[in-house]
Write a structure and sequence with these properties.
- This protein has 175 residues and is of the alpha+beta class.
- It folds into two domains: 74 residues, no CATH class; 61 residues, no CATH class.
- It is built from five helices and seven strands, in the order H-E-H-H-E-E-E-E-H-E-E-H.
- A five-stranded antiparallel sheet has the order 4-3-2-1-5, with no helix packed on it.
- It is globular, with a radius of gyration of 17 Å.
Length: 175
Amino acid sequence: MGSRTLREHLQVEPLVTLGQKYRILAPSSSLREHLTDSYWCSSMEEVCGGKIVGVAVRYTGQNLVLMQFIPKKVSPAGYRYPVSMSIPVEYLVPVATRSSAESQSMAGSFHSSPEPSEGTLHGDGVTRLCVVCGRYNVPGMLLRRHGYKCRGCVGKKSNAALRTEVSRVKEEVNV
């Protein structure tokens, strides 16, 4: 086994902490490969767009985590039924939690988007989010001109929404 292959095997898979909040920034086309049609509902576009923050409930497989999302839209019956589904670990992007004193003093009405966690950025100041498929912090990612790409995504056109998200997170950290 070469040193490069050994180094890739030694890298740790992303760790998901149960009870923590995560977003999914992957386009629905990427995530649809991993979910059956029974999971697909009207809230999935919001889930895939990162508009709804979910909570990790439990591990359901080697690389699967049961996530629970509360949709923003009310059902026809007037309820907000939680959407629960098993999501591959590599699609979960952590959302930073802020202390209550800081959130009250600093996060006034102008604060609308979740903040990146400290582990979201790497030394080069770029989020390790694949700008093609939306996977987060996968071993073997390559830094390209517009951001990181998985090895399987190199050569494919990047997603404009993911590029925007990477640049937004980068600007928030630099400010």
